[in-house]
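quick one, 258 residues, struct below
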Amino acid sequence: MTMARASANQKPDKAYPDRRDMLRGLAAGIGLTIAPGVTLYALGGAAEAKAPGDRVTSKVRWGMLIDVNECADGCTECVTACSKENGWADTGNPRTDAQWIRKVTVSDPKTGATQSLPMMCQHCAEPPCVDVCPTGASFKRADGIVLVDKHICIGCRYCMLACPYGARSFIHEPLEDQKPHAPRGKGTVESCTLCVHRVDEDRAPACVEACPAEDGGAMLFGDLNDPASEISKRIAKYATRQIRDDLGTDPGVRYQNL
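---
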């Protein structure tokens, strides 16, 4: 599967560092109410952002393994679960709908064979979305989860252009009935968070729990840094691949039988 990666030729303006510091300072001191009953609090915008209990550590790298052979063409349980868990709607319009997770079909141009697989933020070790963000709103936690700090996202959409996976989307319309654990904001960019609120409670992402259990399910979540974890054992035993590994982003999502 071929996906293009955008490049940024212009260097940030010298004023950006001061602007980033100012925005982070403002975000750290206040909560931002974006809808009745939904308040955003600063995520820190740094690799060492802390989860409840200060348990976020670089000793862990959360990731996902998806067995494409177990992913049925017509199954969208993972998409439905993500939508319900995080409060976004799939209206069938790819230009305006959230892209937290979606099913895509890839084909082999030589044989014509096709495969269906879920696509979401790949939670790269070297995320290009973070590299191009002028305010520091796009950031990677110490445990490898890539997030967007809605306090300081200015909606420039540079990260959307830089993402090789088309995994980010822009919120165009006012939002209603938001989930307190997954605040969103008009005029900001968003993407899969690996259900970070669940991870911080020692629970698996909603998509993984919802994946049909026949033959063990297609999706496996775990610590890529722990050789004793089931995901690490599976990766060591079976051939897996990272999408667009030629870009050097080192995605945290791997695919088996692709």
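The chain has one domain: 16-256.
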